[in-house]
């Protein structure tokens, strides 16, 4: 229970073996995802800004446009004409807003010493500094930490919340930090496993644990899932 008497958002019945067991089940069923979403730490940052409220295929189009203009460095983005930069980002949606956010991220990137300066920072300090950038929330920043700088920080997204709340391990109302702590407490700080687990969760969320009309009968987690088992009992 919390101090105000509300139920703890993480189930009291959760044991520390549940999370690694679910990872093993997904890995066995779906196989390694080999998910490395960018070629450089800076490209991860760009992707983290652009992917908000956008499908990744649209983000890729925007990144291709940046590369065609030779604007895939923080210096080039800051030097680019603002209207032309925004037009480059059009495929990712909200392109004027994202243009401003991308410029702000680039300014912070350079102020912190670029990739080399960030690499020398402690993980907590880097996370705190990047969270100061307007428009970069915890998920975006943790994307940069895990995929860009190979720091053992678990990335939580909507798929994670949906899957693990349906299983019954957490409340659907759990906050980002609380859900992330579930993984940090249950798993060793292994960059490779965090990467693989996040990719497996995304694949499961897209293919099976969908918001509407989930494919529970085919989901590799169904036998552990309170939501899936309840659907079986009703059918």
Q: What's the architecture of the largest domain, going by CATH?
A: Orthogonal Bundle
Beta-strand proportion: under 5%
Kindly name the structural category. Answer: mainly alpha
Instruction: Tell the overall outline.
Output: globular
CATH superfamily of the largest domain: Hypothetical protein, domain 2
Query: What is the rounded Rg?
Result: 19 Å
- CATH secondary-structure class of the largest domain: Mainly Alpha
Strands, total number = 0
- Mean pLDDT comes to 91
Number of spatially distinct domains: 2
**Helical percentage:** 55-70%
Total count of helical runs of at least 4 residues: 13
Give an overview in words.
By secondary structure, the protein is mainly alpha-helical. The chain folds into two domains: 18-33 and 156-234, Endonuclease Iii, domain 2 (Orthogonal Bundle), CATH 1.10.1670.10; 41-149, Hypothetical protein, domain 2 (Endonuclease III, domain 1, Orthogonal Bundle), CATH 1.10.340. Helix content is 60%, strand content 0%. It has helices at 18-30, 41-50, 56-68, 74-79, 82-88, 95-111, 114-119, 123-131, 138-149, 158-167, 176-186, 191-207, 226-234. Helix 1 (18-30) crosses helix 12 (191-207), helix 8 (123-131) packs across helix 9 and helix 10 (158-167) packs across helix 12. The model is unreliable at 1-13 (pLDDT under 50).
Brief synopsis:
This protein is mostly helical and 235 residues long.
Keywords:
60% helix; disordered N terminus; Endonuclease Iii, domain 2; Endonuclease III, domain 1; mainly alpha; 13 helices
Topology:
Blueprint: H1 18-30, H2 41-50, H3 56-68, H4 74-79, H5 82-88, H6 95-111, H7 114-119, H8 123-131, H9 138-149, H10 158-167, H11 176-186, H12 191-207, H13 226-234
Helix pairs in contact: 1-12, 2-3, 2-6, 2-9, 5-6, 8-9, 10-12
């Amino acid at each position: 229970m919390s101090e105000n008497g509300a139920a703890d958002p993480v189930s009291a019945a959760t044991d520390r073996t549940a999370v690694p067991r679910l990872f093993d089940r997904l890995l066995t069923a779906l196989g390694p995802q080999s998910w490395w979403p960018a070629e450089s730490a800076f490209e991860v940052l760009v992707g983290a800004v652009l992917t908000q409220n956008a499908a990744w295929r649209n983000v890729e189009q925007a990144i291709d446009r940046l590369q065609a203009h030779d604007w895939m460095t923080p210096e080039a983005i800051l030097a680019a004409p603002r209207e032309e930069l925004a037009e480059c980002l059009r495929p990712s949606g909200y392109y004027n807003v994202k243009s401003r956010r991308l410029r702000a991220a680039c300014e912070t990137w350079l102020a912190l010493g670029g990739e080399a300066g960030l690499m020398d920072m402690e993980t907590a300090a880097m996370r705190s500094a990047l969270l100061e950038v307007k428009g970069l929330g915890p998920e975006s920043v943790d994307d940069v930490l895990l995929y860009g700088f190979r720091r053992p920080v678990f990335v939580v997204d909507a798929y994670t919340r949906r899957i693990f709340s349906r299983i019954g391990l957490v409340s659907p109302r759990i906050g980002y930090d609380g859900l992330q702590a579930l993984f940090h407490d249950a798993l060793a700080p292994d960059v490779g496993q965090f990467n693989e687990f996040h990719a497996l969760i995304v694949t499961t969320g897209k293919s099976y644990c969908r918001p509407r009309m989930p494919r529970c009968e085919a989901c590799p987690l169904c036998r552990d899932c309170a939501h899936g088992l309840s659907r079986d009992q009703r059918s």
